[in-house]
Structure formats: C-alpha cells, structure tokens
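Suppose a colleague, Dr. K., hands you the sequence of a protein chain of 283 amino acids and asks what its three-dimensional shape might be. Before reaching for any lab equipment, you can write down a predicted structure in token form. Begin with the sequence itself:
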Amino acid sequence: MLDIIIDTLLDSLKLIPFLFVAFLIIEAIEHKLSSKSQKIISKSGKFGPLLGSMLGLVPQCGFSVVATNLYVTRIISLGTLIAIYLSTSDEMIPIFLSEKAPLSTIITILAIKFIVGLIAGYLIDLFIRKDKSKEKVNYEICQDEHCGCNHNHSIIKSSTIHTLKTVAFLLIVTFILNIMFEYIGEEFLSKLFFKNTFISPFISSLIGLIPNCGSSIMIAELYLNGTLSFGATIAGLLTGSGVAILVLFKSNKNIKENIKILATIYLIGSIIGILIDFIILFI
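The predicted structure, expressed as tokens, is then:
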C-alpha cells in the first residue's frame, strides 16, 4: 500500500508543471477570445453549429457554460448548443499533453468531436425549430460557476487554482486505478469497464455526463492506462461538457427539455463510440 501511495503521488505531482503551463495557455486564450467568442456565436445564425463546433474545440473552460446561457435565452439554436457540448474537451487536452500522449491521437479525437458536433448540430436544427425570445442574457449564471467569463481575475491565480483542482482529481483517480491494477489486475479491470464490448461506450458516455472536470480526467486516464477502448473514450469525451449540464438544469425551467438534451447527448456519444470500435475491429 505504501508503494501505491508513493507511486500515486509521484505520478500525479510530476504533472503539475505541465498542467500549469497548459492551463496558463488556456486562461490566456480564454481572456483573449471569450468575449469575441460570445459575440461570434450569438450572431452566428445558420452557421451556428459550424462555429459552435469550432469554438468548442478551443480550450476555454467556460465557453460551454456561456453557450448554455445563450440557449436558455434563445439567442442560439438547440443544434448549436448540442454542437458545442459535443465538441467541448473540458480537461482532456491538458491531461493528454501532460501525459505526453501522441499529438496525432489528440488531433484525431478533436477532429472526430468537431465532425460529430457539426453533423449533429445541423441535423437537430433541421428537424427541431425553437422560437427565439427577447430575453436579455444573464451572465450571473456564468459568474456563479466561476467559469472565467469575468476577466477581472488574475491569469496566474486562475491557472494555479485550476491546476491544483485537476491534480486533486488526478490523485484520487490514479490512486483508485493503482489499487485496482495491484490487487485486481489489468485483465479484470478491462472486464470491469467492458473493454472491447459494445457495452463500454454506454458506460463511458454515462461517466462523461457527470457535471465535473473529474469525468474527463477519469476517461483520459483510463484510456492512457489501456483500460478503455478508443471508441469508448470518444463516447465519454463527446458527452463531457464540464459543468454546462448542471447550469442547464439550474437555469432552464423546462425540465423535460433538459432531459431530452441530456438523452440526445448520451445517445450520440454511445452510438458514435460503438461505431468507432466496430470500424477499428474490422480494419
């Protein structure tokens, strides 16, 4: 057990410099582009899903929350919102970069998320129309979630806090996984998460829906440890949009609509994950 604790601490703490630099870059991008992104997406019109999928890929931790607020006030379409949710990467990029994952893998995942978000967004807008209201946007929701919409905070301070929170989740996830690998074994762990079966994407998509950065951290770590298949990883990363789902249920009073949105994201993530694993199996 002592060895497990030491390994967990070393594995997690050594990532701090890489995570801090990654979040520093993300904060800088967010400060630079956040207000512009809001204006672009609010005036996107028919190009909403396209621009939403593109902007969702940019590592801005609060953009999905802003998009949620824009949808609740009917400034953007449902398809645009879904496109942003599906393309948002949350903590995936910092974790993959800090773990020195192949750049080709990161690009492939981002490309898949962009394409899925784009197609799903336009299909949803094609079949579902929502009337726009004249309500004003209320960014208090965004401020309450501390997502970075307010630019008065220090980049260094925000990056430090974000790094520490991520490392805390990493410590928990890594510790649990190390115990499983040590006492249960990798083969059983793979079976536990149904690796290489059609059930795996459904489980991973469910994990991705957890409104917390810990879900994307867990999925990324499980994939890097060889526990999740590529399709299941994509499924979980498609459904993961940070705290945006939580904000949706807090700000949108139409609970049935919220559940439909949640179900739509879950089904898209699961189906795409199954298709990817199926294609890989026969390549």
